[in-house]
Specification:
Distance between the termini: 30 Å
Number of helices: 3
Number of domains: 1
Shape: flat
């Protein structure tokens, strides 16, 4: 499990590092703040299914368990 977390962290850092220059080439008309906003919005949308899935442990942190 620990090696999976390390690999996932390194992969996400690599993809974030690659996405910024590549997206700057594709979206030349945007300034830096708009580009950063789009990148973070895309990351949030990509995480929604994982966060709100009932089988994940993150679900318990965001939505209190029914009593």
């Amino acid at each position: 499990m620990k090696s999976f977390a390390i690999i996932t962290g390194l992969l996400s850092g690599f993809l974030f590092g690659v996405a910024t220059p590549f997206s700057k080439l594709l979206l030349e008309g945007l300034n830096s703040f708009q580009l950063a906003g789009l990148l973070y919005l895309g990351a949030a949308v990509a995480m929604f299914p994982y966060i709100f899935r009932k089988t994940t442990t993150l679900y318990c942190y965001f939505i209190p368990a029914a009593e």
